[in-house]
Design a protein that fits this description.
disordered N terminus, Aminopeptidase, 24% helix, 5 helices, 27% strand
């Protein structure tokens, strides 16, 4: 799929957020037992502009990222005070966080392909330009898009400690929340480096995605760049 054929979505709306994260944290000790899968799993979209509304959730998401990407995967990434971050965590980015009773279950970061921060733009484009040594410059079949209706997803994770039945529920909620958050920012497509089996689980979720790069082993993971069509895909 050539990006020159992608048409921008008409109109945008602001990201809507659910019940206050801090209210969830305060009520943890009073919450009765819930079924293993159907607990109160919520989604919140955090930005620099609204993080004050969610307090600890912003910090806990960065701590969960450190647990997954540094402690478990042994990636060489910046971190401080138990939090992982990099040059793409800017006021231009959004973090979609899936949480339950004050505990982060999953997350993903969104960044517009028009983003700029010093010499950096977004991960796939910077890799193609040879700026990221851990990602080969041939990660994409074609030139990385720079379009307001194309956003990039990075730092996607699901808590590895969740049982299989819950992981499917959490993963489904994360991908659909990501698509919804991107659409609300005016995106029609989301690109990113995903597990090489992405088409299988995209089909299972009823969403469409296509490969946009070769299959690669990056930092021990079998991956592939892909583009996901999000406009009109989720309610």
């Amino acid at each position: 799929m050539g990006f020159q054929t992608i048409k921008a979505s008409q109109g945008t709306s602001s990201v809507q957020s659910g019940v206050s994260y801090e209210e969830n944290v305060k009520s943890q000790n009073a919450i009765p037992a819930v079924p293993a899968v159907s607990g109160r799993i919520e989604e919140t979209v955090i930005s620099v502009g609204n993080q004050h509304r969610y307090g600890q959730l912003f910090i806990d998401n960065l701590k969960a990222r450190k647990t997954v990407f540094i402690d478990q995967k042994s990636w060489d990434l910046p971190h401080t005070e138990g939090m992982e971050f990099d040059q793409y965590d800017t006021p231009q980015s959004r973090s979609v966080v899936i949480h339950e009773y004050g505990r982060v279950l999953a997350g993903v970061r969104l960044l517009p392909t028009t983003a700029r921060c010093g010499c950096y733009s977004y991960m796939l484009r910077d890799a193609q330009l040879g700026m990221l040594p851990d990602i080969p410059d041939y990660v994409l079949y074609e030139k990385a898009p720079v379009m307001p209706h194309v956003w990039e997803a990075t730092r996607l994770f699901v808590n590895q400690n969740e049982p299989a039945d819950r992981r499917l529920v959490i993963q489904t909620k994360l991908i659909k929340a990501m698509a919804r958050a991107a659409t609300e920012q005016g995106a029609t497509h989301v690109i990113g480096i995903v597990p090489a089996v992405f088409q299988r689980w995209m089909n299972r979720l009823g969403l469409s995605a296509l490969p946009m790069g070769p299959k690669l082993n990056i930092s021990g993971d079998n991956t592939q760049a892909a583009v996901m069509h999000v406009a009109g895909q989720v309610g």
